[in-house]
């Protein structure tokens, strides 16, 4: 492409545009901006007819729906509500008798490099058998089941098996602590937990089952009657008689046949916890029909999936990306996908490149944070540089979870994509269910660092506090003005918080507030996400609430009197967590401060998980407050960044503590 720059210096040039390469345009479902615009127009002219058409074309319904969208209970929108379907049947049974039946569904590579392959037929049998095992434990439609699993075939099978029975799964990322797991088990009211004895990451064996035991012992989990344990490794694990069963025990004698249970389209397929502005994580509830439609549709639209593709999304099933683009989307679309258990740096930082080469991956979908750390590793050690691997199987790259800086975009484009592969910078959220603003590989001219334009039917806009649309070039809050099928349905157990968080009255009560700031480019109207506008941080693509970390810190009651947490920009992780702490004893310095900082980090890891550990901890005798006692967070953000204080500090009650907070441990 003549627009492809030939030197890295051009990184500094703004507004470079990369038109779709011919191989991405040829045969594309959406092969031009005109074709994109046609869909946008169709959706705008008659949204109900548009979504109804797509829902009928893309999903198999056991009972057809008669009404597309019910807005009568807005913002509790309902989609395809009187229709019935089963998500697992749509991902598996549906392919039987088609060429997909004997196609590879999953290529699994374990941490230590062992490869397992399963066809769609084999996967269906695995899911049916596991669903029968769940059924034998009394698990049925409407029950909630928590998964605390390693990445692997078993996790996907367990999710699909829950869906097959109409049981609602809630996957908790295997890096969360016992406390975080217990909170989620209690809030969701789980009747069973599915876990593994251990997980393997980077050659290390890490406990899962022991953490489940610890969580269940914390109380409030009395509804949990069953714990199913996948024996991932040969190591021994503690068994609670009468409650715990191994997968092998649970599967003994079960039938290969398990008819999928039809559920209403609005039936909750899953609840996934994510961080918000308060200390308590939100249980984001997704509905079966609309969610599955979106997972399937975006495989076709955003990835323009072709039958011969080998798709690889590196996300863990503990996050929404692993739900939509590992557990559901690729299967609903009949793709062959690679599933990886391990970490990108084991046995060395060439692991991803070697896997792309070995498995001839054609679509590679990962997070900017992984790209940035692999750039660093490649620059430090030529042996793991991607140029040493054969990556010619790739035809499309994707980025997700945080803004991708143009430098990382260019490196990804050049060294991974061979200047040949479009990069889809997909903006979305746990709440949106799937991509909402993203380039289309066969149509959209790309601009590094921009997620470009909304998908057809997504009425995204940038507005001010009162809901007025901002002109291009002026920043504001990102909203979606019309409902879409895969939108969050409610916050489990907290419909009031759902309304308050996402549909504020100032915007009319039915406009979705994403929680991100954004700006549209003056020339093309392309969206660029500028970051969260609420108290949510994005650290290595992981979403974390500042209040959540503050609550964890102050729960160390023997030590901490007060804590405030802010984010600061970080080249590698996007944002870094900075905690300002007032102790119940004299302000520590030197070695004592270092030791206490370590104690606090370990505490946060126990309360939430290692991903929530503050990078910097600063101790003060107090926090900077206004006379009315409000913590001056803007000031804290400046201090965290190491900036000179330019803010007006005249209202500051206690200006002398600013000097104390300059030191980070
Ligand atoms: C937040 C949502 C998207 C699924 C994984 C994360 C940020 C996400 C992008 C992007 C800039 C992005 C936003 C969003 N984000 N994708 N392409 N460009 N920012 O889901 O944990 O719910 O986090 O991630 O801030 O609000 P999540």
TrEMBL record:
Start and end residues of each AMP-binding enzyme C-terminal domain: 548-630
InterPro entries documented for this protein: Ac_CoA_lig, ACAS_N, AMP-bd_C, AMP-bd_C_sf, AMP-binding_CS, AMP-dep_synth/lig_dom, ANL_N_sf
A GO term from the CC aspect: cytosol
UniProt EC number: 6.2.1.1
Record-level GO BP terms: acetyl-CoA biosynthetic process from acetate
Organism domain of life: Bacteria
Domain AMP-dependent synthetase/ligase: 102-484
Reaction equations catalysed: acetate + ATP + CoA = acetyl-CoA + AMP + diphosphate
Family per similarity comment: Belongs to the ATP-dependent AMP-binding enzyme family.
Main function: Catalyzes the conversion of acetate into acetyl-CoA (AcCoA), an essential intermediate at the junction of anabolic and catabolic pathways. AcsA undergoes a two-step reaction. In the first half reaction, AcsA combines acetate with ATP to form acetyl-adenylate (AcAMP) intermediate. In the second half reaction, it can then transfer the acetyl group from AcAMP to the sulfhydryl group of CoA, forming the product AcCoA.
Protein name: Acetyl-coenzyme A synthetase
Species annotation: Xylophilus rhododendri
């Amino acid at each position: 492409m003549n627009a492809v720059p030939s030197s890295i210096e051009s990184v500094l040039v703004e507004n470079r545009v990369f038109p779709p390469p011919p191989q991405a345009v040829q045969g594309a479902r959406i092969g031009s901006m005109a074709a994109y615009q046609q869909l946008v127009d169709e959706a705008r002219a008659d949204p109900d007819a548009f979504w109804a058409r797509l829902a009928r074309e893309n999903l198999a319904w056991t009972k057809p729906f008669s009404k597309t969208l019910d807005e009568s209970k807005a913002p509790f929108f309902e989609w395809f509500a009187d229709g019935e379907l089963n998500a697992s049947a749509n991902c598996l049974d549906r392919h039987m008798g088609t060429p997909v039946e004997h196609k590879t569904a999953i290529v699994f590579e374990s941490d230590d490099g062992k490869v397992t392959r399963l066809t769609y037929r084999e996967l269906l049998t695995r899911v049916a058998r596991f669903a029968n095992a769940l059924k034998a434990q009394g698990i049925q439609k409407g029950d909630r089941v928590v998964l605390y699993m390693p990445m692997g075939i078993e996790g996907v099978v367990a999710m699909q098996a829950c869906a097959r029975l109409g049981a609602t799964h809630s996957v908790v990322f295997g890096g969360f602590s016992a406390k975080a797991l217990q909170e989620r088990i209690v809030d969701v009211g789980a009747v069973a937990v599915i876990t593994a004895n251990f997980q393997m990451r980077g050659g290390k064996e890490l406990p899962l089952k022991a953490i489940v035991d610890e969580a269940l012992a914390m109380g409030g989990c009395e509804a949990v009657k069953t714990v199913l344990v996948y024996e991932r490794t040969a190591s021994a694990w503690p068994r609670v008689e009468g409650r715990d069963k191994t997968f092998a025990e649970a599967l003994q004698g079960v039938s290969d046949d398990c008819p999928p249970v039809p559920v209403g389209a609005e039936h909750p397929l899953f609840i996934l916890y994510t961080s918000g502005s308060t200390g308590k994580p939100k249980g984001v509830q997704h509905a079966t029909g609309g969610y599955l439609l979106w997972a399937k549709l975006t495989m076709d639209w955003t990835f323009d999936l072709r039958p011969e593709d080998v798709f690889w999304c590196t996300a863990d099933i503990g996050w929404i990306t692993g739900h939509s683009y590992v557990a559901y989307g690729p299967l609903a679309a009949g793709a062959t996908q690679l599933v990886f258990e391990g970490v990108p740096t084991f046995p060395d930082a060439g692991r991803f490149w070697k896997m792309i080469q070995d498995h001839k991956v054609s679509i590679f979908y990962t997070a900017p944070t992984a790209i940035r750390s692999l750039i660093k590793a490649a620059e430090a050690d030529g042996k793991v540089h991607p140029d040493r691997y054969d990556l010619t199987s790739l035809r499309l790259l994707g980025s997700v979870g945080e803004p991708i800086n143009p430098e990382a975009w260019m490196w990804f484009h050049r060294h991974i994509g061979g200047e040949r592969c479009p990069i889809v910078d997909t903006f979305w959220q746990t709440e949106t269910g799937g991509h909402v603003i993203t380039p289309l590989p066969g149509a959209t001219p790309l601009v590094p660092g921009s997620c470009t334009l909304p998908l057809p039917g997504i009425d995204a806009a940038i507005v001010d506090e009162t809901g007025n649309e901002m002109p291009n070039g002026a920043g504001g809050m990102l909203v979606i003005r019309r409902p879409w099928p895969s939108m969050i349905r409610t916050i489990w157990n907290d419909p009031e918080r759902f309304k308050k968080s996402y549909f504020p009255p100032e915007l009319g009560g039915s406009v979705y507030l994403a929680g991100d700031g954004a700006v549209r480019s003056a020339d093309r109207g392309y969206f660029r996400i500028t970051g969260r506008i609420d108290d949510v941080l994005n650290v290595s693509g992981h979403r974390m609430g500042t209040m959540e970390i503050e609550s964890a810190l102050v729960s160390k009651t023997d030590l901490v009197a007060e804590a405030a947490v802010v984010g600061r920009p970080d080249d590698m992780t996007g944002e870094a967590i900075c905690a300002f702490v007032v102790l119940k004893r004299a302000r520590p310095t030197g070695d004592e401060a270092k030791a206490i900082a370590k104690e606090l980090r370990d505490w946060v890891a126990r309360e939430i998980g290692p991903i929530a550990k503050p990078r910097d901890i600063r101790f003060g005798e107090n926090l900077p407050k206004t006379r009315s006692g409000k913590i001056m967070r803007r000031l804290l953000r400046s201090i965290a960044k190491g900036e000179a204080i330019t803010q007006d500090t005249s209202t500051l009650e206690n200006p002398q503590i600013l000097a104390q907070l300059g030191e980070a441990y």
